[in-house]
Amino acid sequence: MDSSLLFLAGAVVLGAGVLATWLILRSRAAPSGELSGRLAQLADSLAAQQAQLAERLQSQERQLGRLLEERLADMGKRLNDGLDQSSLRTGATLAELRERLAVIDSAQANIAQLSERMVSLQDILSNKQARGAFGEIQLQDLVSQVLPPQAYEFQASLGERRRVDCLIKLPKPPGSIAIDAKFPLESFHQLRQAKDDAERVQAGRAFATAVLTHVRDIAEKYIVAGETAESALMFLPSEAVYAELYANFPEVVEKSYRARVWIVSPTTLMATLTTIRAVLKDARMKEQADVIQVQVRHLLDDVKRLAERAGNLEKHFTQAGDDLRLLKVSVDKVIRHSEQVEAIQLGDGDKTPDMI
Questions:
Q1: Are the C-beta atoms of 257 and 234 separated by less than 8 Å?
Q2: Residue 272: which of 227, 229, 218 has the closest Cα?
Q3: Residue 349 pLDDT > 50, yes or no?
Q4: Parallel, antiparallel or unpaired: strands 177-180 and 162-168
Q5: Of the chain's two ends, which shows fewer C-beta atoms within 10 Å, N or C?
Q6: How much is the pLDDT for 260?
Q7: What residues does 264 pair with on adjacent strands?
Q8: Mean pLDDT, to the nearest integer, of 185-199?
Q9: 26-35, 106-115, 123-132, 153-162: which has the minimum mean pLDDT?
Q10: Alpha-carbon distance 131 to 346, whole Å?
Q11: With bands split at pLDDT 50, 70 and 90, how would you rate the model's confidence at 116?
Q12: What does the alpha-carbon distance between residue 218 and residue 122 come to, in Å, rounded to a whole number?
């Protein structure tokens, strides 16, 4: 209810109370007829004011009810709109969440497959023969990607009953280079799994010994005088083994250099093969240089003969020009003599033109 209406109702009630008190006090001194008239007037006035007050209260109640209904309707509309938007956002969030869950499920499946493949790779690397086949396959992929087919041979024969994993065919010098793809892995795993310094030192010695033993085998088997180059390559298919060797075992690397066995990883082998391809290209161009020089000499001889024949043709054209000029002179004389003969036949009297 409006505060002004409450104030007005309170004022009316208070005024009625004051008026009633005043009338009681006046009734003690006034006559009864006059008092009755005044009370009647007061009752009529109070009834009229109460009717007006009731009417105004009803009007204010109707307005307040309409205002309250409008505000409730607006609040309900806003609430419905908010719920609709919230539903849309919730639906979009749930759809995005389902997509992310699908991606996570796919990633988990890939991780599971990768785990299985890693287990298979560990099984392969734990077996010496399978590890050698793994290194050979990786070596074949690298070599076949960089070099032309005629520049290499896999499982090539060397010396007496020896086969090398790959033989890079280079002209002499330096000659063909052998590449061995077998590598020691057990000692490297022991080195990585060492728990204290003592185990690490012992595993490091075993790793260095295994690498140097393999280096000596390569130098003895695959460096054949008169058949191969004076050096060979030891291919390590694992970058981790290569990094460990060059980072912490420089004396092993130095001894391999002295044995003319170069240790390479997949990355360094790719760089080495790229250099070999450039060497092969230069050698091929050098082989073709003699053929090109012979062809250039033949071309120069042909150009000389062409120049001589052009000179002879020019002489023939000059002689033909002279003959044409002499022919023109003879034709001019024939024409002149013909004209003189005609003048004799048609001339006057005994006048005879000079005959030339």
A1: no
A2: 229
A3: no
A4: antiparallel
A5: C
A6: 92
A7: 235
A8: 80
A9: 123-132
A10: 124
A11: low
A12: 26
Average pLDDT over residues 63-79: 84
Among left, alpha and beta (phi > 0; psi -120 to 50; other), residue 161 is: left
The three-state DSSP-derived secondary structure of the chain is CCHHHHHHHHHHHHHHHHHHHHHHHHHCCCCHHHHHHHHHHHHHHHHHHHHHHHHHHHHHHHHHHHHHHHHHHHHHHHHHHHHHHHHHHHHHHHHHHHHHHHHHHHHHHHHHHHHHHHHHHHHHHHCHHHHHHHHHHHHHHHHHHHCCHHHEEEEEEECCCEEEEEEECCCCCCCCEEEECCCCCHHHHHHHCCCCHHHHHHHHHHHHHHHHHHHHHHHHHHCCCCCCCCCEEEECCCHHHHHHHHHHCHHHHHHHHHCCEEEECHHHHHHHHHHHHHHHHHHHHHHHHHHHHHHHHHHHHHHHHHHHHHHHHHHHHHHHHHHHHHHHHHHHHHHHHHHHHHHHHHCCCCCCCCCC
pLDDT, residue 2, reads 52
22 pLDDT higher than 70: no
Q: What distances in angstroms separate CA 241 from CA 130, 186, 262, 279, 301, one per listed residue?
A: 17, 11, 15, 29, 62
Determine the Cα–Cα distance for residues 120 and 323; give it in Å rounded to an integer: 98
User: Who wins on pLDDT, 47 or 270?
Assistant: 270
User: Looking up tokens 């080495």, which residue turns up?
Assistant: 272
Q: Where are the domains of the chain?
A: 128-284
Gap between the Cα atoms of 236 and 240, Å rounded: 9
Question: The pTM is what?
Answer: 0.47
CATH class, range 128-284:
alpha beta
Q: Taking phi first (over 0 means left), then psi (-120 to 50 degrees means alpha), and beta for anything else, what does residue 250 get?
A: alpha
For residue 148, whether the previous peptide bond is cis, meaning omega lies within 30 degrees of 0, is no
- Residue 241 CB coordination number (10 Å): 22
